[in-house]
C-alpha cells in the first residue's frame, strides 16, 4: 500500500518539476493541483495510528502527518551535524555521490525504512540508507563538510587518500580467488566446481544500484545465448537480505542464480570497488576479463571475450572449422580491424576529419584498447608498431596510415608532409582502396581500406595486382 502511494507521489513530484522547473519546497505544495487526495501523502499506518516520523524540525509546515520529504529548504539541524545547511542543498550534494538513488521521500513506519529514490524507485534500507553503500562510498565522503569540500562557505578538508588495495583489473590472467557461498535458492555455489567445465560470468551487484539493474537484462541475454557453449552466469549479491532480492527478481521477472555475499568478503577478495563489476573466469580457472560499470557496449565487450575464449579454448572448435592457429589469429585480427574502422568512421562523422591517432578514438569511440593489439602479437607477447609511425599514447600493433606523423624515412625514404596528406593524395589515384589500417604481423599483411574492405597485400600494396 505505502509503496504504491510513494510511486504516485513520485509522479506528482515529476509533474510539479515539469511545470515549475524546480522541486516543490514541501509535499503539501503538491496539493491539490498535483495530488488531489491528500491522504496519498500519508502512510496508511499513520492514518490508522496518527504516528509519523520523528524528525520534528523537518515536518511539513501545513501537513504535519505526511511522509518525510528530504528536499525541503529547511535547515539540517542535528542531522549529520549539518546545522544551517539546507536539506535540499545537502541532498543535491549526495546526488553527486550516488545519483538518483538518493531518497526524496521516506517512510519510517515499517520494519525497514521505505525510500522513494529521486529516480522513482522504491527500496528498503535501515535508518541510514547510506549504509547500503558501505564498501562503495568512502564513509568520510558522506560527511557534510566533505560533500561541500569544494565550496568556499565551509572550510575545505584534505581529500581522503585514495584506496591502496588493488582493483579487480589486477586479477586478469591470475587464478580467480576461490569461494563458496550459499545461494538465494538454498543451494551452495562453489566456484571450484565449475573449473574444467564452465566459463563463469560473475556479476557483483545489488538491487539499489541503478547501473547493476541496467546491466542485468544484458547479462541474462548473454547467459542464455552462450549457455549451450558452457557459459554460466552468477549474480553475486552484495549484503542484501533475501526478501529484498526476491521481491526485485519477482518484479523484474528475472530468473537467475544469486549467490549471497552477505558480508562482502568475496567482493573484497576480488578487489571490487564499484558495482556492477563483472568477472569472466575461464574453464582453466583464470580470470580472463573484468568489466566495471554498465555501458551500451557491455554486450559487445563481454561477448567478444567469450567468443575469443571459446575459439581459443576449444581445439575441437578450431579443428571443425579447419583453422590453423595462424588462420584463427587472422580471423580475430580481421574482427579488430573492422571494429577500429567503424570507430574511425564514427569519429569522422562527429569531427568532419580523421583522427590524428588511433588513440584519439579512446574512450569515446573505442573503450577497449585491447582491440588495438593484434591477437597474434598479444599471443607472442611482443607488441610492435611500424617504425616511425608509433601512436603517441597507446600501445598498438596496428599501423594507422592516416596518422599525423610526417612520412618517416622508413616509408619510401620519407617526405615533408604528413602521412594523412600523402595518403589523401594516394586516394586521388587509388580511390578508397588505399589502406587505412594495416597489420604487419601476418604474411601477407592484413589491411582494411579507407572504404572498409579487408584485403591482403605485401608491404608495398601499391605494387600488388599491377601487372
Ligand atoms: Zn509507510
Ligand atoms: Zn594482426
Brief account:
The chain is an alpha+beta fold and 467 residues long. It has 12 helices and 17 strands. It has 3 domains: 146 residues, no CATH class; 153 residues, Glutaredoxin (3-Layer(aba) Sandwich); 139 residues, no CATH class.
SSE map:
Layout: H1 2-20, H2 44-49, E1 68-69, E2 75-77, E3 83-86, H3 87-98, E4 103-107, E5 113-117, E6 122-125, H4 144-147, E7 180-182, E8 188-190, E9 199-205, H5 210-226, E10 231-238, H6 242-252, E11 260-261, H7 265-269, E12 277-281, E13 287-292, H8 298-313, H9 315-320, H10 325-351, H11 375-380, E14 398-400, H12 419-430, E15 435-439, E16 445-449, E17 454-457
Parallel strand pairs: 9-10, 10-11
Antiparallel strand pairs: 1-4, 2-3, 4-5, 5-6, 7-8, 9-12, 12-13, 14-15, 15-16, 16-17
The chain binds zinc ion (ZN) (2 copies).
Residues 2, 43, 45, 107, 109-110, 114 line the site of one zinc ion.
Provide a descriptive summary of the structure in words.
30% of the residues lie in helices and 16% in strands. Helix 5 links the parallel strand 9 (199-205) and strand 10. It has helices spanning 2-20, 44-49, 87-98, 144-147, 210-226, 242-252, 265-269, 298-313, 315-320, 325-351, 375-380, 419-430, and strands at residues 68-69, 75-77, 83-86, 103-107, 113-117, 122-125, 180-182, 188-190, 199-205, 231-238, 260-261, 277-281, 287-292, 398-400, 435-439, 445-449, 454-457. The N and C termini lie far apart (82 Å). By secondary structure, it is an alpha+beta fold. It binds zinc ion (2 copies).
Rounded average pLDDT: 86
How many discrete domains? 3
The ordered H/E elements are HHEEEHEEEHEEEHEHEHEEHHHHEHEEE
Terminal Cα separation, in Å? 82 Å
CATH homologous superfamily designation of the largest domain: Glutaredoxin
